[in-house]
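On clarity, I found the account of how folds are encoded harder to follow than it need be. What matters is that the chain and its backbone geometry are given together, residue for residue. The format is easy to grasp once an entry is in front of the reader. For illustration, here is how one protein appears when written out as sequence plus structure tokens.
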Amino acid sequence: MVQAKVTALGFDADDTLWQNECFFRDTEGRFLDLLSDFGDRATLSGRLFAVEKRNIPVYGFGIKGFVLSMMETALEVSAGRLAPSVMAGVLAMGREMLNHPVELLPEVRETLEALSGRYPLILITKGDLFDQERKLAASGLGELFHAVEIVSDKSSATYARVFAARGDGPEKGLMVGNSLRSDILPALAAGAFAVHIPHDLTWSYEHVDEPVDHPRLFIEQHIRKVAEIIERINGSDDDLTR
């Protein structure tokens, strides 16, 4: 009998279980409309992205940091000449994002329900604690997870710690997510397996090159394939599981 190589599953949340980036894109588009007197859309978008990257060590990831970065960008490009109504509009857009209903991606619930009775499921997500807790509660998926880890950022140390505490170590953990930078590469670096499920929209900050022929990396278009991948891994006698 082949000993199981995967005994615990980690899942990203935003754009893996539910829609997220589309709301940021929509809000950014309306923000650029507000600032149309101060530059073209491409230039303004680039300025916003630069401010967001600069602010990540201060504000972290999530909607609140995004709103603060929009306000900072607006003040910079306008040299502080914006009408108060514009800033009020930015705040209103942030509140709208924070209150937006959670939209599950296709086949997420069915997949998690099928897996939850067989493996401990761990939600591993980064961002604002309050907002991520809100989205998890609104998703109705909370009862399917054995544990929830909301972290400020994702690194190989994060995955090593979580899979050691919640499973049998990173070597027997498998991480599922849409972001190569946050979900896949650091999980692989920790020694875990990883399933990359690309999303149609990915924030520029998360763009990195995909590893070539990594023996613990699997790429799929649908989350329902995760169960098949686990069966392939656990049913293999080989060290290389692709």
